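hey can u check if this looks right to u? its 119 residues, i copy pasted from the old doc so theres a chance i mangled smth
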Amino acid sequence: MAKRRVGRYRIEFRRMAVERMSSSDNISVLAEELGLDRNTLYRWRVQLKANPPAETESVPTSEDPRDSRLREENNLLKRALAEKGLEVDFFRAALQRIAARRQQSKSSGERASTTRSGK
């Protein structure tokens, strides 16, 4: 069975801690020994009772080829999104410069290079 992480601690560690909880006389001492908060042990016990481990848990031991392909695609999409963000920033700045020129040219009495409809 592969070792999975749900949070900071592996599932196997959580199961071991909950098992020791059932045979321990003092949960506070056990929590201190494991370097945990007492409430964490109780929370793990509730979680493990709600989701008992399946006998044939199918957790891949090595990375699935689909995972690596999806990870590559995700990185590609992140790069594309970043590039589009840069393009948006570029065009927004260009439009602001055009608007500023248009305001300057109207105030000086010159005719604007483009006309607005309705004026």
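The two ends are 75 Å apart (CA to CA).
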